[in-house]
Amino acid sequence: MPAFFENADPIYLIAQIIGVFAAFFGIFSFQQKSRSGILIWQIINNVLWTVHMFLLGAFAGGMLNAIGIFRGIVFYFRKDQGWAQSNVWYAVFCALFAAASVFSWIQGEGALALLPMAGMFFTTFSLAQKDPFRVRLLSFFSSPCWLTYNIIKGSIPGAATETFLICSIVIGILRHDLPRRRKV
Question: How does the average pLDDT of the chain come out, rounded?
Answer without folding.
Answer: 89
